[in-house]
Write a structure and sequence with these properties.
mainly alpha; 1 helix; flat
Length: 44
């Protein structure tokens, strides 16, 4: 199963904050960035 270290897939609400931020004017100076939203998978 693809998911986080708890063995579950992310709920859309868990990534919505990042998506909303990137779509907002507050992120107007962000470019070329990589946001890893994987529940800690890459930490292992």
């Amino acid at each position: 199963m693809i998911g986080d270290v708890d063995g579950r897939a992310a709920d859309p609400a868990e990534i919505a904050g990042t998506v909303l931020h990137l779509c907002s004017d507050a992120a107007s100076f962000i470019n070329g960035s990589l946001f890893i939203i994987d529940g800690g998978q890459t930490a292992h």
